[in-house]
Write a structure and sequence with these properties.
Blueprint: E1 2-5, E2 10-11, E3 17-20, H1 22-29, E4 39-40
Parallel strand pairs: 1-3
Antiparallel strand pairs: 1-2, 3-4
Length: 43
């Protein structure tokens, strides 16, 4: 998985791109639920 923040121009890693705002990506990586429609890509 490659998280890619759309609001601050940041990405990390390789693989499938999962994009969204940085704070939503952080919630996702920490295992929290993210409201529908805030993350784009296959999780």
């Amino acid at each position: 998985m490659q998280p890619k923040a759309t609001d601050i121009g940041w990405s990390y890693g390789e693989g499938r791109v999962v994009s969204g705002r940085a704070q939503d990506l952080l919630l996702l990586v920490c295992g929290s639920r993210v409201p529908a429609g805030r993350i784009d890509g296959d999780i």
